[in-house]
């Protein structure tokens, strides 16, 4: 029996959708990562029960850290982006986490930089707070180890193509690393929105909207570019088509980054039918009811969509591109230098 709800919601479902596609479905991803991170910090004495943990988040990490703090008797303070909605803000308040939301900004880069600046201000006043740094601290890789072990157990000796959205890089990076360390043959496919610095699409704007949780306009230390074999970039309309098809065809109600990963996974599965293709569903569809699912009639048929194959980022174009990344280093602007 679980001793705290964080253990239950942190455990993903592994669902076979057809003979090639498997969905690694989280109710809300990052709980498993935040809980293991907090436990590691407590075990190593970096923090003590009752301490305050602080970080910036665009949504699901805020909830994950609040649950981990609730489980372990810590205080949680979040500097949130404008994508943190009323439902989450209310839950955070009742859970005892404190939350401050930045002023709305249409500029994602500015929004991220302002959140970091605000955290530095708070830390100057409260040097005793511990900054979790989900985008940079490798402690966030730890929690995915058990998930990788389970994936390995359940897929046996099959070669795996793992497909997932890249935000902090921790989930895709840690799962691929864990599987490869266990001897599995893993091809890793990262999914990105346009307008993201991480894999060099920052010169192309997606006119409709950003996909919450994936992509970045500042470099992240937890993205290890050399782990990735392939990168897909998807625009909002393609991700919408994926999300709607995933619900219609397989009854999985998940968010936009999942819709994008599902589309990329279908494509990769078609290229190499001998592999088991596992894609990550990071959150449920509730946040996207109005912006995505209510528009189901305008969703393109996924069979009509195909990525443009590019060999360099200057060829990128909306709404969907694919590039063989081949374990290359990241763009210089997206790489965190030591220090
Ligand atoms: C909805 C959603 N999908 C995918 C991701 C990417 O996960 P990671 O930060 O592990 O790269 C995030 C991260 O915030 C997210 O919120």
CATH topology tier name of the largest domain: Rossmann fold
The assigned structural class equals alpha/beta
Give me the Rg, rounded. Answer: 19 Å
Distinct ligands, ions and cofactors found in the model = pyridoxal-5'-phosphate
Describe, in plain words, how this protein is organized in 3D.
Its cofactor is pyridoxal 5'-phosphate. With 339 residues, the chain is of the alpha/beta class. The chain has two domains: 219 residues, Rossmann fold, CATH 3.40.50.1100; 103 residues, 3-Layer(aba) Sandwich (Rossmann fold). It has an eight-stranded mixed β-sheet. Strands 5-4-3-6 form a four-stranded parallel β-sheet, with helices on both faces. A hairpin with a 4-residue loop joins strand 1 and strand 2. Helix 3 packs parallel to helix 4, helix 6 crosses helix 7 and helix 8 packs across helix 9. The longest helix is centred in the middle third of the chain and has 18 residues. The chain is globular, with a radius of gyration of 19 Å. The structure holds pyridoxal-5'-phosphate. Pyridoxal-5'-phosphate (PLP) binds next to helix 3 and helix 7.
In short:
Helix content is 34%, strand content 17%. The chain is an alpha/beta fold.
Characteristic terms for this protein:
12 strands, 339 residues, Rossmann fold, 2 domains, 9 helices, globular, alpha/beta, 34% helix, binds pyridoxal-5'-phosphate, eight-stranded mixed sheet
């Amino acid at each position: 029996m679980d001793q705290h709800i964080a253990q239950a919601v942190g455990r993903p479902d592994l669902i076979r959708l057809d003979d090639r596609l498997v969905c690694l479905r989280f109710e809300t991803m990052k709980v498993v990562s935040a809980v293991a991170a907090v436990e590691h910090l407590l075990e190593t004495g970096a923090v003590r029960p009752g301490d305050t943990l602080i970080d910036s988040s665009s949504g699901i990490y805020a909830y994950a850290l609040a649950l981990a703090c609730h489980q372990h008797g810590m205080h949680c303070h979040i500097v949130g982006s404008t994508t943190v909605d009323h439902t989450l803000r209310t839950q955070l308040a009742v859970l005892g986490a404190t939350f401050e939301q930045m002023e709305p900004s249409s500029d994602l880069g500015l929004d991220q930089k302002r959140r970091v600046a605000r955290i530095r201000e708070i830390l100057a006043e409260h040097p005793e707070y511990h900054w979790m740094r989900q985008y940079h601290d490798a402690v966030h890789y730890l929690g995915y180890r058990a998930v990788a072990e389970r994936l390995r157990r359940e897929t046996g000796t099959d070669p795996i193509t793992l497909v997932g959205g890249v935000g902090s890089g921790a989930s895709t990076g840690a799962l691929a690393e864990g599987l490869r360390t266990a001897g599995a043959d893993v091809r890793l496919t990262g999914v990105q929105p346009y307008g993201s610095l991480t894999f060099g699409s920052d010169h192309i704007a997606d006119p409709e909207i950003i996909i919450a949780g994936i992509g970045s306009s500042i470099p992240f230390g937890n993205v290890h570019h050399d782990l990735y074999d392939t990168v897909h970039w998807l625009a909002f309309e393609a991700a919408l088509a994926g999300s709607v098809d995933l619900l219609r065809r397989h009854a999985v109600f998940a968010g936009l980054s999942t819709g994008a990963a599902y589309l990329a996974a279908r494509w990769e599965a078609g290229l190499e039918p001998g592999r088991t293709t596992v894609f990550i569903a990071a959150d449920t569809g509730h946040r996207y009811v109005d912006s995505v699912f209510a528009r189901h009639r305008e969703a393109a048929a996924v069979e009509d969509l195909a990525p443009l194959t590019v060999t360099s980022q200057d060829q990128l174009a909306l709404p969907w591109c694919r590039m063989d990344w081949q374990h290359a280093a990241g763009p210089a602007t997206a790489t965190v230098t030591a220090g």
